[in-house]
Design a protein that fits this description.
The chain is of the alpha/beta class and 495 residues long. It has 19 helices and 12 strands. Strands 9-6-3-2-1-12-11-10 form an 8-stranded parallel sheet. Strands 5-4-7-8 form a 4-stranded antiparallel sheet, with no helix packed on it. α6 packs across α8 and α11 crosses α12. It is globular. It starts with a strand and ends in an 8-residue tail after the last helix.
Amino acid sequence: MRSSGLLLHVTSLPSRFGIGDLGPEAQRFVDILAETGQTWWQLLPVCPTGLGDSPYASPSSFAGNPLLISPELLVQDGWVTESEIDTYPTDSAGIVDYPSVATYKSRLLEQAYSRFITRPHMDGFQDFVNREADWLLPYAAFRARKLKHQDKIWTSWPTHDRTFPEKKSLNPDLPELQFYLFEQFIFDSQWRNLCDYCRKRNVKIMGDLPIYVAHDSADVWASPELFQLDDAGEPLVVAGVPPDFFSNTGQRWGNPIYRWEVMAERGFKWWIHRMKRAWSLYDSVRLDHFRGFAGYWEIPATEETAEHGRWVRGPGQIFFDRLVSEFGALSVIAENLGVITPDVVELMETNSFPGMAVIQFGFDAGMDNPHLPHNYQPNQCVYTGTHDNDTLRGWWDALSGHERAFAGEYLEIESDENICPRAIERCLASDADLVITPVQDVLGLDGHARMNFPGTAFGNWRWRLSPRQQTELRDKFGRWLHDSTSGSRRLSVEN
């Protein structure tokens, strides 16, 4: 079925608390999605952020980000008071100030927890702990040890803490674990509330699942045998991509690589748990760096760049067969951008996974470029841009020469002001089943609204939608977006 949606991470929502959250502004955005006929709200990972405030370098691929917890909903549920939430310093307009937000939210959650410990057997808490214990207890133990050791990487801890304890010793009643269990319970409660609201408005949520996890994470600490590590817990090899047109030295991401043969021997149980968690949070999942399931670039950990790696065969079809046997049909979008080999195409076609196309990539060659809208296929998810690209307007402003002339003629650009609506309309009118547009492109924002610069560790993930821009999204652009969605036969079922 033809549909469309908008890409906006929760952190980018308006808020008077320095960061977008799961509260009233999230519901207002869902209302805008519904009113403009959109079916999908696409997010970045909602796990806790890690190095450089990145949601792709998380201390847990299972946990929810406590920075997304809504102070207003904490008041509504009786955990804190109105005066306690009014302590956030002056908001930094247009960006997330992560250190200030982290300090504020930690203090607020500690106040909420002080009330929780007087009634720890409240409805739903124990059910949540029991249901999510496989990842929740290791995560809480990891966080407790990180706090104990001043946030140092787990491989530097004393041996008795560096070694993951037997699961039977992870008693949820241990005081040092209780705060983190409570924190995740609150996130889960608020997330479920938002999901219920989405269902009422017939809006679906598309999540994002990175293929790799961070080395300094509960995932690796709790299951080191599943990763290629040495006796000290340090990676033997790390993930990345080889040199290409964009980088002479490639990209060295630094994530530890799975021992896929051990994963397979165990029936991919860890991945089953991970996907079960993902599909409990989202209606569909974008699998980031999908090609790694067919073959991946393995870099010796001693190498400072990605130049001297090698291609290694990934788990392939047996991995997806196992997922299908567990879950049935898989609601997945395969992120297949970049150089894609026949084995990746075969893996996608065997499983009928939609791939991706991005219109910004369409103008560096001729008319047969697969990223041009007239070449889009039904089983595809197409974008005007992703979180890793410049905004459409920023991309257009930076173009010159052949690409600018080609794009201008192809999209019939009469002035700089209509690059965004023309590109969005061409994507919507294409044969692709699904079109996702970043909110920045609907608003026509320039490169200052870009979310991420790949290859840079700091200064990303900070852009936020202002209250004025959210109003413009509804009042200035809403009718055009609804009519364009309707004209391309993509209206959500509510419309």
